[in-house]
Design goal:
The complex is a heterotrimer of chains A (283), B (655) and C (99).
Chain A (H helix, E strand, L loop, with lengths): L1 H8 L6 H23 L3 H21 L3 H27 L13 H24 L15 H10 L3 H22 L11 H9 L25 E2 L5 E2 L19 H8 L13 H9 L1
Antiparallel strand pairs in A: 1-2
Chain B lengths: L7 E2 L8 H17 L7 H24 L8 E11 L2 E9 L1 H24 L9 H25 L3 H19 L6 H32 L4 H7 L5 H19 L7 H4 L5 H10 L4 H8 L1 H4 L3 H22 L5 H21 L5 H28 L12 H4 L1 H15 L5 H14 L3 H30 L23 H24 L1 H9 L14 H22 L13 H7 L4 H47 L6 H24 L1
Parallel strand pairs in B: 1-2
Antiparallel strand pairs in B: 2-3
Chain C lengths: L3 H20 L3 H26 L3 H31 L13
Helix pairs in contact in C: 1-2, 2-3
Classes of the chains: A mainly alpha (283), B mainly alpha (655), C mainly alpha (99).
């Protein structure tokens, strides 16, 4: 902190200490930014971004902006980035980018344009600003940084400040509206209405689907139920689970047979009980 | 010139003058509207209406004869026709010797030809039923023509003249194209219509100029004040009027429609394209004589046009084998004489009208004779297929012969009086004009004798070539005399051809016309003594007859047209290249221009419009593909834009 | 060392963020790249404040942070709802609005 304080005390050009810090953290922040763009995993990207932001917070502190520096750390790195990670975990953690670029020439064009842009910025800024002596914030922040900002915010920038408050409230409301999973009120149907609809034939079958594992030898969701006549109720298996080879343990022959014998060409001798039931089930 | 006669209001029968054209007009209307119901009696109504007009015309004529010459010019204002700002035109009639002369000619010859048409247009035995209605249609259009022609000559202002002018143009167009199923007739009608339009533009412009400068279009006022105009304006007016006259009268350079107009039925050729309508140009110039009196230059142009035309007509007439075309070019030539006469000024106006009248008789008679011959020869017009018809159709032969002798100026027949008088007056001019006019007219008289003698010999004398030939419709020729309804008018006209000249000069036509045309000035001695001229003309004509006899009469006429022939004959057969000239100079560039415009429109204008639309459409279809829906593409373009803007900013800032 | 170095670093970080927006397809990572761009701008604002001797730049950066927070809230909510309907957080999958 002493280095920072020393840096803050100097009015104009940065001192040696600040230079040292800059030349360490500057490359770090740039490398982190590049790494963020290049990282395949979105969580890694977020973490690299956090690193960049922290570096920037240090820069703020060094440039006599302690308030912004801490806001950067607390609000940005702390709250906003956590929100990012939260949403990331919620929706897109495993949907990492595919390597294939679908837009032809997009990457090359982006990099080339980006380099051109950077070149222009560096050339322009370098040519314009190196000659300007730095004034330093000695006078403006004579009462301290925070009181200075506070005075400006509540005097010259009062109206924008109030507008930002309105903006924040609007954003909060908008987020609630957007994130609120709407359910249609009419979608909910009473039990009586459902029964009537079932008996009218509006559903594929009158009864509910049978649960898995009923009368089966195993209690697993991957084992289909047996109907009272002993045939297999294939619809008792979830569609997601079907086709998933979960069965590694040896099963009793009948059930192992039942599991695989949904087909018609099953040998008659091994599936005595299933034949009629299977056909009835299909009917 | 003498002071213009006082104009009095019409009285007595004169106040009924409007019936002159109203009767045929109503008749035409009835015949047009009545449809098939009028098939049975349509021709009777047509003849009766023209006869009624003729009778009324005679009554008015007699009444006018009864008053002193200076009171013979009357006007009858019917109603205010056009009243628009400063333009005020009355529907008024001018009944004076000139218009009455024309009325009698039109209704008299018109009546004869109407009667003739009853026989000529009669449906053939076994003809299709539509020919009945075609005869009704024919009479309706013929009546329309008579009505329009009477409006033309009776109007007391230029607008009525123009109304009649266009009316006869319409009737002429309809009647030339009467045989609608023949492409040649349709083409000839179009040609006549188009070339008449050229002339009509001239007439219309002349009327515009008159109104612009004088503010009135009534003859009396115009003639009274025309002297106020500058010489250039008067010359322009006269030349424009001459253009109108050339168009209507088939004068050079607009002469080539008239021979083609022979595609119409022969009575039409006789009435419209020989006796009356084509002389409207002569009437126009004679009527506007107070204007022409003021401009010797204009008169010279008129006379030169007449000279050129009479030579052209006479030369081409020698080469044709088509009997009606020969007569048509003869008409062109004779109207050339009339134009020459009226171009001579006060010394010639009355002579032009005189020749117009006699020509009306004998040329109508000749055409009716030709129609009779065609009637006998299955509508064939090729004289090489004729021959020896004189024995078969004696009445036609005799009446035609009368017309022939009158036309070539046989002594003491009609043409002798009128044509010789014109040639005399032509020789009476001073200097080069006298020589040019006189010699050309004399030469044309010789040529006229030649081609008419050739026509007579080929048609009525010699061996009967038609015996070994088939008509175009595959039948044998059975020449026969025409029915009395056709021969009657021919006889009347033949009598007129023989005696009209003598009678008219004896009763003093020139004095009769004086109130309208001014006193006929005796032409001065000019370049040749007057006593010498008739002998010269007679000798020239006799030479023409002799040559024709030697060339045509002494050897058998080949049925096929001899080819090749010398250049003058070739040129004459091709109308002295008038059609070729028109095609090359006017039609061809017109077609090219149209094609170029069509091309420009299709490719240029349409191409521009369609191309713009297609370009926009195609471009949009391609540009649309930029809208991929991938937000990263849009972001890329945004970055590109940013780079551009930053680069531009830096360039401006630091450059 | 001149404070201009901060500006250069800021420009580079901004460019890296922009490239990230263009090449990454995971909507959340794209969002993080946007955050990086905003932070880069903040760094330059703070540096400008120091160079000018005025606190206005810092106030501006403060506002940027607030707006960024609001934006993050709404943006993440949008990503959530898109994910809920499309089962995907790739920006390329939401491409129906096109020709």
């Amino acid at each position: 902190m002493s280095v920072l304080a020393q840096a803050a005390s100097t009015a104009g050009d940065a001192g040696v200490g600040e230079a040292i810090v800059f030349w360490i953290l500057g490359p770090v922040s740039l490398a982190s930014a590049i790494a963020m763009v290049l990282a395949r995993n979105a969580v890694h990207s977020a973490l690299f971004l956090v690193q960049t932001m922290l570096s920037l917070a240090v820069f703020y502190l060094m440039q006599q902006a302690p308030f912004l520096g801490f806001v950067q750390i607390i609000v940005y790195t702390g709250a906003v980035m956590m929100l990012f990670l939260f949403v990331l975990m919620l929706v897109g953690r495993d949907s990492s980018d595919s390597v294939v670029e679908v837009l032809r020439g997009q990457r090359v064009a982006a990099v080339l344009l980006g380099l051109a842009f950077a070149l222009l910025l560096v050339a322009g800024v370098g040519r314009a600003a190196f000659a300007i002596p730095s004034a330093g914030l000695g006078v403006a922040a004579s009462n301290g940084n925070l009181p200075g900002i506070g005075r400006l915010v509540f005097t010259d920038y009062l109206l924008p400040f109030e507008l930002t408050s309105a903006l924040l409230i609007t954003a909060a409301l908008g987020a609630i509206v957007l994130a609120f999973a709407q359910k249609k009120p009419a979608a909910k149907r009473g039990q009586r209405a459902t029964v009537i609809a079932r008996l009218r034939g509006e559903h594929a079958r009158v009864s509910p689907l049978p649960g898995p594992g009923v009368y089966a030898t195993a209690n697993s969701v991957a084992v289909p139920a047996l109907l009272p006549d002993g045939s297999i109720a294939r619809e008792s298996l979830s569609e997601i689970i079907e086709g998933h080879e979960v069965d590694e343990h040896p099963r009793p022959p009948a059930d192992a047979h039942a599991l695989t014998d949904g087909r018609r060409d099953a040998p008659e001798g091994t599936a005595v009980r299933t034949t009629t039931g299977g056909e009835e089930d299909r009917a | 010139m003498t002071a213009p006669p006082e104009v009095l209001p019409a009285t007595g029968a004169g106040s009924l003058a409007w019936l002159l054209f109203a009767i045929p007009a109503v008749s035409a209307l009835v015949l047009f509207l009545a449809g098939k119901r009028a098939n049975a009696w349509g021709h009777v109504l047509g003849v009766a209406s023209v006869l009624a007009s003729f009778v009324l015309g005679v009554v008015i004529f007699v009444q006018t004869l009864g008053v002193a010459p200076d009171q013979r010019t009357t006007e009858l204002s019917l109603y205010s026709w056009i009243s628009s700002g400063t333009l005020d035109v009355d529907f008024g009639l001018r009944i004076d010797p000139l218009s009455l002369t024309f009325v009698l000619l039109i209704t008299g010859v018109g009546s004869l030809i109407h009667i003739y048409s009853v026989g000529y247009m009669a449906p053939h035995a076994g003809a299709e039923p539509s020919s009945d209605s075609s005869r009704r249609r024919f009479f309706a259009q013929l009546n329309l023509f008579v009505a329009a022609m009477l409006v033309l000559v009776l109007g007391n202002n230029f607008v009525l003249l123009y109304l009649g002018w266009e009316g006869v143009g319409l009737a002429s167009y309809l009647l030339i194209g009467f045989y609608q199923d023949r492409p040649s007739a349709a083409t000839a009608a179009k040609k006549a219509f188009l070339m008449n339009r050229v002339g009509d533009v001239g007439l219309a412009l002349a009327i515009f100029v008159l109104w612009l400068n004088l503010g009135t279009l009534q003859y009396t006022e115009v003639f009274a004040r025309v002297g106020e105009l500058s010489g250039g304006t008067i010359l322009a007016i006269t030349l424009l009027l001459l253009l109108g006259a050339c168009g209507k009268s088939g004068q050079f350079p607009l002469q080539s429609w008239l021979p083609d107009a022979m595609e119409g039925p022969t009575p039409v050729s006789a009435l419209i394209h020989a006796a009356t309508m084509v002389t409207a140009g002569v009437y126009l110039i004679a009527r506007t004589n107070p204007i022409y009196d003021l401009t010797p230059t204009g008169r010279v142009v008129v006379a030169l046009i007449g000279v050129v035309t009479l030579l052209i007509g006479a030369v081409i007439g020698c080469a044709y084998d088509d009997i009606k075309k020969v007569l048509a070019y003869s008409t062109v030539s004779q109207i050339g004489y009339m134009i020459l006469a009226v171009g001579l000024g006060p010394a010639g106006y009355a002579l032009g009208i005189f020749h117009l009248l006699t020509h009306g008789f004998f040329k109508a008679g000749l055409f009716l004779g030709a129609g009779s011959v065609m009637h006998a020869m299955n509508d064939d017009v090729n004289m090489r297929n004729f021959g020896g018809l004189g024995r078969r159709m004696p009445i036609t032969f005799v009446t035609f012969g009368c017309g022939y002798l009158a036309l070539i100026g046989f002594p003491f027949l009609s043409g002798y009086f009128s044509k010789d008088a014109i040639i005399e007056a032509a020789f009476g001019q001073e200097g080069w004009q006298g020589w040019v006019y006189g010699l050309a007219a004399t030469l044309a008289a010789g040529l006229t004798a030649f081609y008419m003698t050739r026509l007579m010999i080929m048609t009525f004398f010699g061996e009967e070539r038609w015996r070994n030939l088939k008509a175009p419709d595959g039948e044998d020729y059975h020449p026969h005399e025409s029915p009395p309804v056709m021969t009657g008018p021919m006889i009347v006209l033949a009598i007129g051809s023989v005696f009209a000249g003598f009678v008219l000069s004896a009763v003093g036509l020139n004095q009769w016309l004086a109130p309208s045309l001014g006193e006929l000035q005796e032409s001065p001695a000019g370049v040749l003594p007057h006593a010498l001229v008739p002998w010269l003309v007679l000798a020239c004509s006799a030479l023409g007859v002799l040559v024709a006899y030697l060339v045509v009469g002494r050897r058998p006429t080949p049925v096929q047209r001899p080819e090749p022939v010398s250049f003058p004959v070739r040129a004459a057969r091709r109308d002295l290249y008038a059609n070729a000239f028109n095609e090359t100079v006017i039609e061809r560039p017109g077609i090219w221009l149209t094609r170029a415009l069509v091309f420009l429109d299709n490719r240029g204008v349409d191409g521009l419009v369609n191309g713009l639309a297609a370009g926009l459409g195609g471009g949009s279809a391609r540009l649309r593909r930029l809208q991929t829906g991938f937000v990263r593409s849009y972001a890329l373009s945004m970055l590109g834009g940013s780079v551009f803007v930053v680069a531009a900013l830096l360039a401006v800032r630091f450059a | 060392m001149s404070p201009t170095n901060y500006l250069l670093l800021s420009g580079l970080l901004f460019t890296v963020g922009a490239i990230g927006v263009l090449v990454r397809r995971n909507a959340i990572v794209v969002f993080m790249c946007i955050e990086l761009m905003l932070n880069a701008v903040n760094l330059s604002l703070v540096t400008f404040a120091r160079m000018n001797g005025q606190l206005d730049g810092q106030v501006m950066a403060f506002f940027v942070m607030v707006v960024a927070a609001a934006e993050v809230v709404v943006g993440l909510a949008i990503i959530m709802s898109i994910f809920r309907t499309r089962r995907s957080s790739s920006v390329d999958d939401a491409n129906l609005l096109k020709y």
